[in-house]
Amino acid sequence: MHLTNSDLLKTQAYVNGTFTEAKSGATFDVINPYNGEQISKVTDCGAADTESAIQAASAAFKVWRNYTAGKRARILKNWYKLQIENLEDLALILSTEQGKPLAESKGEIKYGASFVEWFAEEARRIYGDTIPGHAADKRIVTIKQPVGVVGAITPWNFPSAMITRKVAPALAAGCTVVIKPSELTPLSAIALAELAHQAGFPPGVINVVTSSDAKTIGAVMTASPLIRKISFTGSTRVGKILMKQCVDTVKKVSLELGGNAPFIVFDDADLDKAVAGAVAAKYRNAGQTCICANRIFAQADIYEAFVEKFTKAVKEQKIGSGLEAGTVIGPMIEEKAVQFVEAVVADAKEKGGQVLTGGRRHGDSATLIYEPTVLTEVNREMDVYKKEIFGPIAPVFKFETEAEVIEMANDTNYGLASYFYGRDYARIWRVAEALEYGMVGINTGMISTTVAPFGGIKESGFGREGSKYGMDDYLEIKYMCWGGIE
Ligand code: ADP
Question: Which domains does the chain have, with CATH numbers?
Fold first, then answer.
């Protein structure tokens, strides 16, 4: 990997302001999913290393919380600027360990950095209230205070932005953090730590614990009375485990979990725009995002036309190494992920599904690239309807009425993102209100932005990230009742 700034390719954990080995001396391999080559060996932290990081974050909290908001904001802005200055290198590290196309990685770095900029600005606006009192001699005031040390557990599909989306509001609020990145993509996290170091955060404010043993690190973090909040992005399965583990210490929890997004195309939609939106919403990161369109529903009158245009657009996507110019579909993250997708497609075929394009690995059995796939003749008995696919597979369902499609769209335990295309404004309002989802894209397949609240309902989790609401998850409201004012 040829970086302009080779300092960014570090391999150690970051604890108390120092890049450090694990106490055990252990390391684990980071693999390039495109070619299976080892990129580097990274520090494999255990329970004791995690405890040290928590202790450091706890000590640093006493200092950091007392910085003025302006002082915290200035350091956050330094971090933001460094991320933008090092955009090319950060994107290269990201694509190499994660596989996504370089253009997407650059987009992710900018998106991730935008949270740091936004929350640096928001840091100064943590206002309290004065409330008219309930008795003549009383005055009521509220202030907002940081919750304390935050444990952030983040996934591999957005190795950089899922860290900044949690950490920036936490730091702006005055919290300190212990980050546990995915074992599949620790290098992006370490690079962010290096830039945080350069930005001037005091030791212990940001800690990164890299580990191949997520279960142990998660258990230590959730059991620790010093950690006051866990913010997690990942699978619903692991989210439920963490939520249970947080019961004994009654921690605050924010969970951004899986999705099963409907993408509905009504008969009055602009079909070309709907096709472009569906491709964007489905195939980003080879279908590996929690807001990817999972089930596409097209109304009967335009079904054939939509499927034809959509399949054509899907076939045009360039497949290959994320590092090659023009690649749109890169490898999936690991063999297990490809096998899951293979099983989902096999299940659909067994139950009558038709493969219009794709439906297989791209090349030999060693590749992790799965061809972008379109399935028709699909029904609600299939895994493509029920499960989060997390891969480049688009089943297109046919529907007749608005009521029918709303029922199907909501027929899932998930409730993260949803999308629909249409023009009738009354129907737009009805459908947007009826969808049981935290986010609705209306005539757009791209909904993520720093300025809007990202989050789900039902088993997709709770808490909102980004926007003016994003800081609330890291703040406690304290109410002061002043008496004796006569
Ligand atoms: P994904 O399906 O995106 O891989 P996971 O939920 O498996 O989602 O992983 C998301 C993050 O959760 C990763 O950092 C992973 O290491 C971590 N993780 C996995 N299992 C556990 C666990 N039992 N406790 C704590 N963290 C875990």
Answer: 6-256+459-479 (3.40.605.10), 261-448 (3.40.309.10)
